[in-house]
Structure to design on (202 residues):
């Protein structure tokens, strides 16, 4: 058949047919190679998570204590543990996706390190240490220049980001920062005068 005589409809049909065939070949080759995949995504209409949790009770206790040092209860809202952040961390590092698995390789050894550091310094796991002792370890992670604390600093940064990310995605976290999004408004009053002045638009 002369290429110029192929109609647009026929060309589209051929492209779609070819893409379907290539997709089938790709799936078939993956199956032949024994690819395991990462399982199914969670059903967002249900609360169950389709993967097993991996954190040990010791890791969960350390995560709870450290999370509450990062986001303690104050006049703005409850502590991280009160809104389920330790469960969020456990769910996060248990997920079979690349970013979460990379974080798990940082967070789980980091929680073991902070427990061992507390045992070496105070004779007890991090979760059993006093607030002052827990805070002292965190301050050393952030200020001390030793190799051990420099390495722990990377763990702490990742863990802190996950704790705050989990916390400020809750209703309590929204209230703590004064977030009022997703709230219907009868009318939109526009930017306040101080914003317009700052932008030079007043």
């Amino acid at each position: 058949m002369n290429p110029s005589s192929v109609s647009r409809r026929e060309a589209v049909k051929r492209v779609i047919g070819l893409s379907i065939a290539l997709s089938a070949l790709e799936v078939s080759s993956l199956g032949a190679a024994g690819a395991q995949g990462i399982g199914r995504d969670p059903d967002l209409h249900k609360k169950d998570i389709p993967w097993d949790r991996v954190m040990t009770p010791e890791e969960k206790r350390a995560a709870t204590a450290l999370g509450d040092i990062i986001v303690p209860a104050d006049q703005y809202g409850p502590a991280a543990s009160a809104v389920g952040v330790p469960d969020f961390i456990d769910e996060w590092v248990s997920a079979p996706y690349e970013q979460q698995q990379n974080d798990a390789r940082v967070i789980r050894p980091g929680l073991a390190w902070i427990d061992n550091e507390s045992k070496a310094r105070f004779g007890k796991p991090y979760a059993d240490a006093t607030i002052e002792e827990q805070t002292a370890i965190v301050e050393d992670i952030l200020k001390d220049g030793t190799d051990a604390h420099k390495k722990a600093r990377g763990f702490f940064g990742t863990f802190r980001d996950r704790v705050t990310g989990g916390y400020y995605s809750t209703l309590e976290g929204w209230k703590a920062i004064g977030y009022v999004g997703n709230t219907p408004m009868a009318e939109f009053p526009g930017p306040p005068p101080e914003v317009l002045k700052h932008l030079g638009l007043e």
User: Anything to note?
Assistant: Residues 57-176 form one domain. The chain has two domains: 8-32, 57-176.
